[in-house]
């Protein structure tokens, strides 16, 4: 996120755009077929631009990557970028435009669940194919969407389990703070069910929601402080999305909430969001994802080098949703090669069972429920804006998109 | 210097009896292990009270302690590194920093607290006492008692006594415990209450005494909580006041419905950003970036306002609907222009150090510095507006034109010029609001849209054309909003406030301070 290194970012973005425009000129000769069109549906303005702009660049990078490998099926790839401007109904309109006007073969897009819910009927009606790269609340399974981010059992539940463990500080009271829309509300409903099953009663759970772009956090942070001073170890679980995180963390720092006393684990804050915040007062606060830029290993080194070379800025960071796009894009390429066509009806079955050594250092697999198997990582925010892993699962965890902690899912589980 | 201390420590080490030497050295290998091993080692080092542990633990806290793959520990020494056990210069090849997690940080805080209790620096002793208060254990009692006996500075001693009470609460001595409960009750802090609630379940026999202490604290906390809510309300109110003051001039005095007002606020915030970037090159200017941004933002937005008035609005006087639509369009153009010039992404405006952190007022009321400054700034701007309207020639002419344009013109006032100046003045005030908002909100092209409705609300609620009304309206809305927030939530509280204003406007269409007399009728 651009806010810290303001000089760089715009230039970098322009450079990135320039590079993508220049790309076709240096490409090897392609076959006769029309280009394969890749839709990019990410907000480039509004409250979510802080998170989604880098994802647009990631998809453009992957298109360039595929073209440098000679394209797919002998055809060149071409990106079609639209800006839904953090406006949820506009997401549906732009999705329709991508599918009907531009006739894209595949789309990568959306960050917030509300935007995904907005485009889902469009993709189902027009038989499109969407890759959704962000961790989310589950409770969904569309034949036209592949979910390459984490399901609740791959992020939210392990993170809270960690907070309750000895290493995480043995939290006995939990504050659930979120932005007011479907993802935080559903995730917190699942977490409440989970916490109740672990013996943490509703009296020890504080739940609060704020609108998108909320900036006046003083009252809420003061109340959290008070809630934490009831004689039990307290932790914050944050599902705050978008640029509201900047004033939120600023207020945490100003009111002196230290990670040793009240750790805060965030589900939607990665390296890209932290790049705009002075992280020194935040050292020790946590983030739960399935990939960190600090992950060791060759696949990640290659991924980071590819990104920084593409964006022409050795200081730019990578994050989890970017890794999810990388993984999803590569799997889609493998599936297209296997199906020998880009037709959605043929690519969808070919995607199931695709495997890839992902930058997170594990081999991920596309499961029949359209979700991935992924490792779970808990990391601590460092003074330099990076996140260091402090806990991780031994292997990959299979996604459960229908959470057992939501009572209505009991019948579904039996089927 | 550290090198010298380390050498002396080494010499001492050789002279020390073998047992103590073993205990210190024996605690070290754990530091190269997993998080729980590190935490255990830190606890042991803190309990030993060995002075050699202090530089070691400080290095660990600052992330400067390194470990080699074969388990040796390296301390920074001068420009190089030295082996923590032998003190010999060592090679850093392959070594990596020992990482921390929150459990280790907690252990470190306690251990460093114990070791720093004898520090010559009173600030460190105070910090040590606070650290022990948080991480208290029964073993701290004798340490603290000794430290209290030595302590000369009353403020530090008070902290130590509080820490002693906290430690005694977990120690076995029953009589000391009763005493500690009473002292913690008198301390009246949130932290003390947390300790007491925790101790209540562990000591059923003392429950009655603990309840009395908790009740004492509760009473104090209630007052403090009210003071803090009031502060938060005033803070929100001052933000609303700043955002609305410009509108109080353009809408309140001139009657122009300027929907681009929010965008002028946004321009002010971007002007702050630009000033900050310009100052970045010269190091002595950096702390002055924000004060410098105040006149810069005022001038930029005032110029934009004058341009808008002369170019467009003056052709539309007396046609409020067209003015509304046109200024709305101008607002969108400004947003898009900023988006093109600065990018759609947020820009970060840094807070100077004097605006960071919390200030604790007497009585334990904690207020955040940035909000406090914004309250002062809001009041200063209000005073400036009042002075400009009441005490200057420009203010006199402005009032004359508003009261009766024709007669003012016959007296030789150039009404067109006064209109432009008034509108520029109101727009400049919006720019000042932008400077303040850059400190608490995200500087993005959409910044203004979040404040335009609130600004109109304040002006209409307070009474159109009344500065006092704007002040009272802004502060009332801020305080009521913050009082509702704890039980209604941030979203609902705002809804309630809106409903209340609608009902109020039904009863009193002219707001709190309705203008009376001829001015009101025109």
TrEMBL record, chain A:
Gene3D superfamilies: 3.40.50.2300
Entry-linked SUPFAM superfamilies: Periplasmic binding protein-like I
InterPro entries to which the protein is assigned, alphabetical: ABC_urea-bd_UrtA (IPR017777), Peripla_BP_I (IPR028082)
Pfam families: Peripla_BP_5
Protein name: Urea ABC transporter substrate-binding protein
Transmembrane segments: none
Gene: urtA
Domain of life: Bacteria
Automatic annotation (TrEMBL), chain B:
Membrane spanning stretches: 234-257, 292-312, 324-342, 372-389, 456-480, 486-505
Protein name as catalogued: Urea ABC transporter permease subunit UrtB
Keyword Transmembrane: yes
Name of the gene: urtB
GO cellular component: plasma membrane
Organism: Dankookia rubra
NCBIfam families reported for this sequence: urea_trans_UrtB
Signal peptide region: 1-20
InterPro entries registered for this protein in UniProt: ABC_transp_permease, ABC_UrtB_bac, BCAA_transport_permease
């Amino acid at each position: 996120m651009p806010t810290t290194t303001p000089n760089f970012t715009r230039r970098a973005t322009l450079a990135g755009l320039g590079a993508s425009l220049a790309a076709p000129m240096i490409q090897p000769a392609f076959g006769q077929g029309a280009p394969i069109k890749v839709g990019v549906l990410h907000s480039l303005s509004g409250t979510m631009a802080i998170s989604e702009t880098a994802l647009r660049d990631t998809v453009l990078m992957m298109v360039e990557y595929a073209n440098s490998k000679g394209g797919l099926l002998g055809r060149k790839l071409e990106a079609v970028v639209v800006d839904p401007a953090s406006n949820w109904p506009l997401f549906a309109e732009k999705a329709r435009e991508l599918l009907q006007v531009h006739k894209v073969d595949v789309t990568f897009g959306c960050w917030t669940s509300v935007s995904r819910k907005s485009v889902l009927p469009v993709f189902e009606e027009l038989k499109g194919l969407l890759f959704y790269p962000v961790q989310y609340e589950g409770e969904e399974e569309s034949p036209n969407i592949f979910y390459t981010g984490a399901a609740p059992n791959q992020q939210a539940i392990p993170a809270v389990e960690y907070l309750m463990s000895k290493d995480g500080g043995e939290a006995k009271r939990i504050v659930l703070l979120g932005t007011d829309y479907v993802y935080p509300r559903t995730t917190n409903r699942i977490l409440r069910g989970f916490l109740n099953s672990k013996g943490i009663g509703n009296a020890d759970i504080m739940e609060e929601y704020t609108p998108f772009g909320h900036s006046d956090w003083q009252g809420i942070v003061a109340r959290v402080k008070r809630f934490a001073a009831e004689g039990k170890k307290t932790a914050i679980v944050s599902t705050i999305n978008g640029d509201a995180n900047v004033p939120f963390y600023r207020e945490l720092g100003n009111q002196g909430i230290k990670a040793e006393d009240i750790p805060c684990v965030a589900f939607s804050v990665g390296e890209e969001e932290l790049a705009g915040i002075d992280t020194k007062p935040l050292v020790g606060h946590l983030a739960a994802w399935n990939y960190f830029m600090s992950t060791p290993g060759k696949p990640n080194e290659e991924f980071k080098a590819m990104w920084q070379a593409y964006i022409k800025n050795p200081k730019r960071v990578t994050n989890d949703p970017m890794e999810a796009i990388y993984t999803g894009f590569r799997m889609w390429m493998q599936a297209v090669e296997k199906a020998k066509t880009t037709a959605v009806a043929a690519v969808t079955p070919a995607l199931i069972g695709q495997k890839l050594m992902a930058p997170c250092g594990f081999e991920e697999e596309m499961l029949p429920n359209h979700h991935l198997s992924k490792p779970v990582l808990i990391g601590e925010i460092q003074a330099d804006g990076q996140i260091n892993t402090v806990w991780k699962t031994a292997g990959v965890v299979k996604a459960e998109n229908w959470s057992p902690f939501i009572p209505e899912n009991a019948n579904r589980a039996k089927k | 210097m550290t090198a010298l201390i380390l050498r002396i420590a080494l010499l001492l080490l050789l002279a020390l009896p073998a047992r103590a030497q073993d205990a210190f050295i024996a605690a070290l290998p754990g530091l190269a292990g997993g998080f729980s091993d590190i935490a255990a080692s830190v606890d042991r080092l803190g309990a030993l009270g060995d002075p050699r542990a202090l530089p070691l633990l400080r290095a660990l806290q600052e992330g400067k302690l390194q470990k080699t793959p074969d388990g040796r520990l390296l301390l920074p020494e001068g420009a190089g590194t030295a082996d923590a056990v032998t003190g010999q210069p060592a090679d850093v090849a392959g070594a990596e920093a020992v990482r921390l997690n929150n459990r280790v940080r907690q252990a470190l805080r306690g251990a460093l607290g114990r070791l720093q209790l004898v520090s010559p620096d009173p600030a460190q002793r105070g910090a040590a006492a606070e650290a022990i208060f948080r991480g208290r254990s029964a073993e701290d009692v004798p340490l603290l008692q000794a430290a209290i006996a030595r302590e000369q500075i009353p403020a530090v001693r008070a902290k130590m006594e509080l820490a002693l009470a906290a430690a005694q609460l977990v120690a076995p001595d029953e009589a000391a415990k009763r005493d500690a409960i009473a002292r913690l009750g008198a301390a009246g802090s949130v932290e003390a209450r947390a300790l007491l609630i925790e101790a209540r379940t562990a000591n059923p026999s003392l429950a009655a005494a603990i309840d009395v202490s908790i009740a004492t604290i509760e009473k104090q906390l209630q007052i403090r909580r009210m003071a803090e809510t009031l502060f938060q309300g005033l803070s929100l109110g001052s933000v609303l006041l700043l955002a609305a003051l410009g509108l109080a001039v353009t809408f309140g005095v001139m009657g122009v419905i300027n929907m681009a007002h929010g965008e002028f606020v946004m321009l002010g915030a971007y002007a702050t950003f630009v000033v900050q970037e310009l100052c970045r090159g010269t190091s002595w200017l950096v702390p002055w970036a924000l004060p410098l941004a105040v006149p810069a933002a005022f001038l930029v937005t005032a110029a934009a306002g004058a341009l808008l008035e002369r170019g467009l609005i003056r052709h539309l006087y007396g046609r409020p609907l067209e003015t509304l639509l046109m200024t709305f369009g101008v607002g969108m153009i400004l947003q898009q222009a900023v988006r093109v010039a600065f990018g759609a992404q947020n820009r970060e405006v840094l807070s100077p150090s004097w605006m960071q952190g919390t200030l604790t007022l007497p009585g334990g009321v904690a207020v955040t510095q940035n909000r406090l400054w914004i309250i002062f700034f809001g009041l200063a701007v209000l005073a400036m507006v009042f002075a400009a309207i009441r005490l200057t020639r420009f203010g006199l002419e402005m009032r004359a034109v508003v009261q009766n344009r024709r007669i003012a013109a016959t007296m030789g006032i150039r009404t067109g010029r006064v209109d432009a100046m008034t509108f520029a003045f109101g727009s400049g005030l919006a720019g000042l609001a932008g400077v303040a908002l850059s400190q608490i909100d995200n500087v993005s092209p959409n910044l203004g849209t979040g404040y335009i409705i609130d600004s109109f609300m304040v002006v209409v609620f307070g009474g159109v054309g009344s500065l006092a009304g704007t002040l009272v309206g802004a502060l009332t809305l801020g305080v009521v909003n913050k009082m509702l927030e704890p039980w209604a939530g941030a979203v609902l509280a705002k809804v309630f406030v809106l409903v209340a204003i609608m009902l109020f406007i039904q009863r009193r269409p002219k707001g709190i301070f309705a203008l009376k007399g001829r001015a009101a009728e025109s």
